[in-house]
Amino acid sequence: MNQKGGCGKTTIAVNLAAIMKSTGLNTIVLDADPQLSASRWAKQGGEEFPLTIHPLDMTKGARKVKTDIRELTQSADVIVIDCPPELREPAMLASLLADMVLVPVTPSPLDIWAAEAATELAQDARELNGNNKPLVILVPSKTNSQTVIAKDLGKTLASLEGQVAPVNIVQRVVLAECVIAGSTIDRYAPNSPAFREMQALCQFVLQFK
Ligand SMILES: Nc1ncnc2c1ncn2[C@@H]1O[C@H](COP(=O)(O)OP(=O)(O)OP(=O)(O)O)[C@@H](O)[C@H]1O
Ligand SMILES: [Mg+2]
Hints:
CATH architecture: 3-Layer(aba) Sandwich
Radius of gyration: 16 Å
Distance between the termini: 19 Å
Bound molecules: adenosine-5'-triphosphate, magnesium ion
Structural class: alpha/beta
CATH class: Alpha Beta
Shape: globular
């Protein structure tokens, strides 16, 4: 989740879900974005696509959304919700229902401020839930390891109200290419650094399961 458009939400959601599925976890992606990017990505892969992605209208109220999620994900071990670029009802509902909220953050000051709003919303959900859920994780996204600002990103993010993933999802062309190929990074480029970074993020996330 993040209201900032294009920060890597769908790229991370779908690749992370594919890697989780490849480890034997029954993983389902719910596409809560009316742009339907994740669903289109799956369509591009056709029958070969390794994941089930269901569109989910999250604007119909909490009760309907809960029923829809229950019906769509009956036997799932992991449910990944790809949120739209806004912090309205779908983001709040997803936060209230989630065990964990991942906020991808790109390394520019304006984007870091946007991430702050997303982490605050997730923290509000935590307070409303009255327990430790959701866990809020900031994920450095589309970083370029060469620039100073990317190197400092981890430090800057540490001042926000969320835990920072110890992995950078670096800007890598192969992550865009695998969408065009209708595939996911674990299948498209299993020997690439992009896969290893996504796998490391997956391992980090699963330790909280
Ligand atoms: N780490 C990365 N390296 C290279 N390209 C990336 C990376 N992450 C995302 N992209 C590319 O950036 C664009 C936006 O990514 P993506 O759709 O995942 O962002 P988003 O946050 O889901 O966008 P939206 O807010 O529109 O839902 C896409 O073209 C995608 O292929
Ligand atoms: Mg998206």
